[in-house]
Structures are given as C-alpha cells and as structure tokens.
Automatic annotation (TrEMBL):
One of its GO terms (molecular function) is transmembrane transporter activity. Its main location: membrane. Residues 13-460 form the Major facilitator superfamily (MFS) profile domain. It is a multi-pass membrane protein. It comes from Microbacterium thalassium. Keywords: Membrane, Transmembrane, Transmembrane helix, Transport. This is MFS family permease. It is found in: Cell membrane. The chain crosses the membrane at residues 12-33, 53-71, 83-109, 115-132, 139-158, 170-191, 203-220, 226-248, 269-293, 305-327, 339-359, 365-388, 400-422, 434-455. Gene3D superfamilies: MFS general substrate transporter like domains.
Length: 470
C-alpha cells in the first residue's frame, strides 16, 4: 500500500473493532445465502409462487453486484468509517422490513435494502489496516475475507433449521441481531480515520459498471427462465457488453477513475480478479452439487441420505473455511504475497480431484469438501491481501469491491454450470452426470491454480509505477 497515516497498534480497542467488523461482515453477507434453500417455504409462507419467491434471493444478489463497486468508491471518497456507519443501519432497516413484511412485495423491498450489504466487506477491509499493526494486518484481512465464504456455507446450513424451529422471519432476525451487534461495537470503538482528499466519483462510469454486472447476473440466473429465453439472454449479454465498453472508455478518459483501467491492466490485479471468479465458481458450484449428490439414491451412485443430512455434509467444510482462512496471513509472511493464493488453489484442486477419482463414499465426500472449502478460504483470503498490497490508499475499497463482484459473478456461473450439467437430460441426475459435474469443479479449481501463478511475486507486486514527467 502507499504511505498512509500512522496506524493504531493492535490492542484491546483494535480487537474490539475487528470483532465488530467481522460481525458486520457476517450479518451483511448471510441474507445472500440463507434465502436460497427455503424458496419453496417462502412461497408457502406468503401464499405465492416459487418464481415470485425466488426474487427474494435474486434481488439481493442483483443489488449487491450493482452497488458494491460504488459503495467501495464512496468509502474511498468520504472515508470507509463514515460510509460503513451510514450503511449498516440501512441494511438493518432492510432486515427489519423483511421480518415484519405482510406480503411478498414487502419482503422483496426489504431484500433490496439488504443487497446494499455487499458493500460492507470492502469497507471493513479498507478500515482494517488503520486499526491493527502491519504484522497482523494480513491475518485480519484473511479473517474478514473468510467470513464471505463462511457465511455462504453457514447460511445454507442453518436456514432450514431456523425456519423449521422458529419460522420464516428468523431468516431476517438472526442477521439483524448480528449486524446490529457488530455495528454498535464499530460505532463505539472505531477511531476517526482521516479521509483522502481529491477523490471523486465518475457517476456515468459507476452506472455503466452497475448495469453491466447486473446484465451479466440476470443472463446467468433469471433470463433462462423467462419466456423466449434465448432472446432475453442475448439482450442481457448485449447490454452487458455495451455497458462495459462504455465504462472502460470513461475509465481511460477520467482523471479519477472508478476502478482504473490502468490498474486492471496490471497483472497482479486482473489475475487476482480472474482467480477470485474461478474460486467463487468452485465454491458455489460445489455447494449446489454436494447436497444433490448426497440425496441421490444409491442406484445413481448417490449417498441416499436425507435432506437434513445432505446439508450437514457441508458443515465440516464450513468450519474448515472459518478455521484456516486467517492462516493466509501466516503463509504470506513466510512465503510471500502470492503463496496463500497458489497454495489455497492447489489444496482446493486436490479436494476436487479426490471427489473425481476416488470412490464417492461418505468419508471421501467429507474429506474432499473439507479440502475444497479450506483451499478456497485460504486462496480468497490471500487475494484480498494481494489487492491491499498493490492498491493505493485511495483505491483499496474499490479494488476489494471489484474483487467481490468478480467472485459473485463467478459463483453465479459455477452454480448455473453445475445445475446445467446435472439437468442435461431433464431427468434425475445419474452416475454419469455426477461424474461430469465433479470433473467440472476440478477443472475450475485447476484453472484457478494456473491463474494464481500469474500473480507476480511479492517483490514485483509491491513495485510502484513511477510518476510520469509533467
């Protein structure tokens, strides 16, 4: 990172701030994963169709993808602390609206506000270097990054249990309690952080980028289910291309770009974003695949377990992600900035290959998913640290936000790809379909290894471009 004001050393106050940031990140991310497993239950609770109820999930993802880069830039412009303390009450209000919603329309309205929670993570990462020592910064960034992957697994695991034991509104009250606790801790303990002057927002570029990523997400998730699906997919794809071309043109011409086309041309940046997309695809793809395989009957080489047991198969992987993510900081300190990303991708590939090559028994599925989850957690935590290292202080939140969007789009591609492979014959997936799906996850993680090796070494990644004359 570029030189910044002196940072407060890690102490009791720093630990409290980090705890608040972790809780805020977890509470803001859970709504993106808790809704998916209970779409049918949501439809029943609000007396509507599954197609209408699915918008309770889609709108969260769409708003998150559309606004995360802009929120990251707002943090660079007005200060991450100020923007975070304004954002958390808005997300909390969205959770409260959803909790009290009398109709599906009110529920979706609440989900719109919840989607803004996608910006919490990049703001938390931008704040972290100001409240912990340089030695502990990588571990804290790794912990915050791990919360994203952990929230996906945790949300999938607990959503059904919460609905069965408390009711559908628990899906809003639990994240509300977490984010309220985290926000209160941050508000009380987080010190003032001087904001950078001279940072501005290119509004047309921000709108173009948001439209582009939303069009990509709709093409992958909703358009295939609309009437005349090929036409809608084509239109969404064309809108995405046009918006991204316009955004890149604005970025090149703007004196203060949203992300910076020059930054995207740096190998350390674009390789990090591409690796994030691939790891996101592997994570979401495996979280779609494993429960379906576990529930499949034995004559299709499945595990023939109940829906609850299938969900619990993801528990060890979820715990592993939470446990090993912060270790990325230790690996980085000993082996360099790129090492956690490469090692994480290699471990994830080993886990996915185990699921392809070994007999898919309960033990091998557990071991394979644990390796896959642990590798993805280490790799994604390493990616955040790479971007913190190479970004200027006034672009840290923007760089992290763009990486989050890459991971979300990759996740959508991975989930859609696995779903397509499993339903290619419009029948219940059989042994051949499961084998192809597990192989696809292995190919994705293998590509992540290749992309991670494109990230420059620590010495190259930290090099700064020299200012141009004049």
């Amino acid at each position: 990172m570029a030189a910044s004001p002196p940072r407060e050393r890690t102490g009791a106050r720093g630990v409290a701030v980090v705890t608040g940031l972790v809780l805020a990140t977890l509470g803001a991310t859970l709504p993106q994963s808790m809704t998916a497993p209970v779409i049918s239950l949501t439809a029943d609770a609000y007396d509507t169709t599954a197609a209408d109820a699915s918008w309770a999930l889609t709108v969260v993802l769409v708003i998150a993808v559309a606004t995360t880069p802009v929120i990251g830039r707002l943090g660079d412009r007005f200060g991450a602390r100020r923007v975070l303390l304004m954002l958390l009450p808005i997300v909390g209000a969205g959770l409260a609206v959803a909790a009290f919603s009398p109709t599906i329309g009110w529920l979706i309205a609440g989900r719109v506000l919840q989607g803004l929670g996608g910006g919490v993570f990049p703001l938390a990462v931008a704040i972290a270097p100001h409240v912990v020592s340089e030695r502990r910064r990588a571990a804290v960034v790794g912990l915050l990054t791990t919360m994203l992957a952990f929230a996906i697994g945790f949300g999938v695991l607990v959503s059904g249990l919460l609905v069965d034991s408390i009711g559908i509104r628990a899906l809003s009250w639990v994240p509300f309690a977490i984010i309220a606790t985290g926000g209160l801790i941050v508000a009380v303990t987080l010190p003032h952080i001087p904001r950078r002057k001279g940072v501005h927002i290119d509004v047309p570029a921000a709108l173009a980028l948001s439209i582009g990523v939303v069009a990509v997400l709709l093409a992958l998730t909703e358009a295939p289910r609309w009437p005349i699906a090929p036409l809608w997919i084509t239109l969404c794809g064309a809108a995405a291309v046009a918006s991204v071309v316009f955004w890149l043109r604005r970025e090149r011409l703007s004196p203060d770009p949203l992300v910076g086309a020059h930054a995207l041309r740096r190998r350390s940046v674009w390789a990090s974003h591409l690796t994030a997309a691939l790891l996101g695809a592997a994570l979401l793809g495996s979280f779609v695949l494993v429960p379906v395989f576990a529930e499949a009957p034995w004559w299709h080489e499945g595990l023939s377990v109940t829906v609850t047991a299938a969900g619990l198969l993801l528990l060890p992987a979820t715990v592993a992600m939470l446990a090993v993510g912060p270790l990325a900081g230790v690996v980085r300190r000993w082996l360099g900035t790129r090492a956690p990303v490469v090692i994480g991708a290699v471990i994830a590939t080993a886990g996915s290959l185990l699921l392809v090559l070994a007999t898919r028994s309960l033990i091998t599925v557990l071991l394979g998913t644990v390796l896959l989850g642990a590798g993805i957690a280490i790799g994604t935590a390493g990616l955040s640290n790479v971007l913190v290292d190479v970004a200027d202080d006034e672009h840290v939140a923007s760089a992290i936000a763009f990486n989050v969007v890459a991971r979300q789009i990759g996740g959508a591609v991975g989930a859609a790809g696995i779903a397509t492979v499993l339903s290619v014959d419009e029948r219940a997936p059989d042994a051949e379909a499961f084998g192809a799906a597990f192989l696809l996850v292995a190919v994705i993680t293998g590509l992540a290894v290749v992309c991670s090796l494109l990230i420059p070494s620590a010495r190259v990644a930290r090099a700064r471009p020299q200012p141009r004359a004049g």
